[in-house]
């Protein structure tokens, strides 16, 4: 038996991340203007970094409770109550994790039994389906379309739900499409979850980056608080990607189960990052709003840019991505991304990295300077002209 | 319009077309606003921040605390005007505290700056005393860190 054959079948079965694959191609090219970055281009605001340094000076270097620093959990609960009117007990219903990625993995492992199905609207964040599979579940893809503004509809869900369906995993505002869901649409989904007795895992990491309207927190909908595992974190809103701090909010049973896994794997999130996260929640609102304002301006620039280029493009209402269709060029997403990289040295991410439903699209991040975005748009325009 | 002014303060090379798209307003509205701001001196000047040390130019900046006797009816303003009219004076502020005016003077040499203080500034009627400090190094100017070491450390492609 080879070494490769000794790898667990579950791990062998999941494909490597499409983003990773494309990164390897990009890494060999020099002088690239990148729209491929899924993280803020702002550095973590100085007051947050400074609080971490101060924390270290104060001797914050030990383990914290498995649940996370109580101080941080209290701030998280307070913030959620103030923003969405949903109250959680910081002692039993809040878990601080190593990024939302860990929280997602914990949620899946805590609730799934082998063969349980999870409905996953697509295109979606690269980890969603893999986390379901790794936890022994079966991801059931719910394809969304540009014509529906990449929103999932109840009728689609009704078609795919089976007696084995245990949960629904949604991520709005969405990475990679920038789609959001209105309150009314989410209410429809909530009724569907109630009807079929489903758990809803709602990844709201981009909640603060919602433009032209307020974000609806799924747990705030009637009857959804205890049925929902709400995931959020500090990476996007506070430009803290490398700190790896996320959190999960739910009823004490789900949070308790997730904490059990967490304590045997991570033990706790790094204390230095938790100290910084407390500062972010206490004093970071102004900086956050300034960043959101800036993303919003760039978003308009990108929508206008793609309109001028002539590619079909849905107007994103959240996150910091735009997801134009490249079907008119006749190229596949990967071919488009590779050819563009070769011809014009612009990096973006092929849509199929986010599932089959992403084929025919590319993800462009506007977490970059205005000058970079303008340059990238000029180059993409020049490239696309050869095909349409 | 605060947003427009903020954008221009940060980068005045943005075109009217770009500004219009970013602010979701018609181009002619943006152009008219800019014209109006320029006319009423809300926008005073478009300026480039230069790191002169890097450019290899020798310059001396003196920061001078000035105590003055306020004058009837005009208070500090008349003396302030006499001072700020000198081309050597880069900035002038009325202060609270131990002194009245803070004058920032730029000269080619130390001698030139000292001469300005002794022959022009101190001799103005109403100036009681001056305390001159010479600037040794400039780290930040108008909100911009001059030797910013923070670069984009992100991977070129990430999820």
Automatic annotation (TrEMBL), chain A:
Keyword Membrane: no
Broad class of enzyme this protein falls into: transferase
Keywords, comma-separated and alphabetical: Aminotransferase, Pyridoxal phosphate, Transferase
EC number: 2.6.1.-
GO MF, any single term: transaminase activity
Ranges where the Aminotransferase class I/classII large domain occurs: 31-380
Record carries keyword rRNA processing: no
Cofactor: pyridoxal 5'-phosphate
Parts of the chain that traverse the membrane: none
PROSITE patterns from the UniProt entry: AA_TRANSFER_CLASS_1 (PS00105)
Family, similarity comment: Belongs to the class-I pyridoxal-phosphate-dependent aminotransferase family.
Protein name according to UniProt: Aminotransferase
UniProtKB/TrEMBL annotation, chain B:
Matching SUPFAM superfamilies: Dimeric alpha+beta barrel (SSF54909)
InterPro entries, alphabetized: Dimeric_a/b-barrel, HTH-Siroheme_Decarb, Tscrpt_reg_AsnC-like, Tscrpt_reg_AsnC/Lrp_C
Pfam families from the UniProt entry: AsnC_trans_reg
Location of the Transcription regulator AsnC/Lrp ligand binding domain: 64-138
Region forming the signal peptide: none
Organism domain of life: Bacteria
Protein name in UniProt: Lrp/AsnC family transcriptional regulator
Organism: Anaeroselena agilis
């Amino acid at each position: 038996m080879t070494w490769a054959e000794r790898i667990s079948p579950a791990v062998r079965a999941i494909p490597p991340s499409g983003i990773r694959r494309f990164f390897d191609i990009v890494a060999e090219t020099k002088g690239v203007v990148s729209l491929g970055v899924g993280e803020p281009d702002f550095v973590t605001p100085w007051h947050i970094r400074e609080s971490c340094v101060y924390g270290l000076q104060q001797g914050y270097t030990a383990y914290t409770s498995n649940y996370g620093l109580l101080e941080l959990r209290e701030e998280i609960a307070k913030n959620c109550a103030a923003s969405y009117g949903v109250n959680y007990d910081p002692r039993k219903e809040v878990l601080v994790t190593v990024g939302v990625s860990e929280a997602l993995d914990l949620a899946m492992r805590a609730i799934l039994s082998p063969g349980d199905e999870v409905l996953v609207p697509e295109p979606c964040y690269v980890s969603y389906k893999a986390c379901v599979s790794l936890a022994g579940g079966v991801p059931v893809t719910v394809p969304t379309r540009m014509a529906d503004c990449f929103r999932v509809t109840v009728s689609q869900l009704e078609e795919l739900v089976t007696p084995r369906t245990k949960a629904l995993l949604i991520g709005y505002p969405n990475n990679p499409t920038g789609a959001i869901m209105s309150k009314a649409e989410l209410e429809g989904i909530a009724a569907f979850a109630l009807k079929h007795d489903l758990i809803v895992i709602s990844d709201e990491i981009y909640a603060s980056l919602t433009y032209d309207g307020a974000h609806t927190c799924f747990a705030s909908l009637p009857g959804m608080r205890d049925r929902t595992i709400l995931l959020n974190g500090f990476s996007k809103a506070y430009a803290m990607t490398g700190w790896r701090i996320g959190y999960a909010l739910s009823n004490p049973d789900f949070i308790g189960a997730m904490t059990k896994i967490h304590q045997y794997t991570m033990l706790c999130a790094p204390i230095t990052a938790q100290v910084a996260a407390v500062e972010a929640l206490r004093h970071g609102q102004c900086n956050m709003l300034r960043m959101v304002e800036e993303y919003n301006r760039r978003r308009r620039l990108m929508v206008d840019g793609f309109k001028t280029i002539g590619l079909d493009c849905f107007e994103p209402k959240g996150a910091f991505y735009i997801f134009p269709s490249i079907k008119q060029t006749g190229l596949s997403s990967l071919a488009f991304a590779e050819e563009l990289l070769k011809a014009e040295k612009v990096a973006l991410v092929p849509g199929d990295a986010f599932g089959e439903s992403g084929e025919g699209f590319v993800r462009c991040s506007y977490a970059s300077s205005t000058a970079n975005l303008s340059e990238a748009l000029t180059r993409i325009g020049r490239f696309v002209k050869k095909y349409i | 319009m605060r947003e427009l002014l903020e954008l221009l303060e940060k980068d005045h090379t943005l075109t009217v077309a770009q500004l219009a798209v970013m602010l979701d307003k018609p181009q002619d509205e943006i152009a008219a606003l800019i014209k109006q701001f320029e006319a009423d001196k809300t926008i005073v000047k478009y300026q480039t921040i230069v790191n002169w040390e890097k450019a290899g130019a020798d310059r001396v900046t003196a920061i001078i605390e000035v105590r003055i006797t306020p004058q009837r009816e005009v208070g500090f303003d008349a003396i302030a005007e006499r001072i700020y009219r000198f081309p050597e004076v880069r900035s002038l502020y009325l202060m609270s505290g131990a002194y009245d005016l803070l004058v920032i003077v730029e000269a080619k040499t130390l001698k030139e700056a000292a001469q300005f203080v002794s022959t022009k500034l101190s001799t103005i009627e109403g100036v009681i005393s001056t305390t001159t400090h010479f600037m040794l190094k400039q780290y930040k100017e108008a909100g911009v860190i001059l030797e910013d070491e923070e670069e984009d450390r992100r991977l070129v492609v990430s999820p």
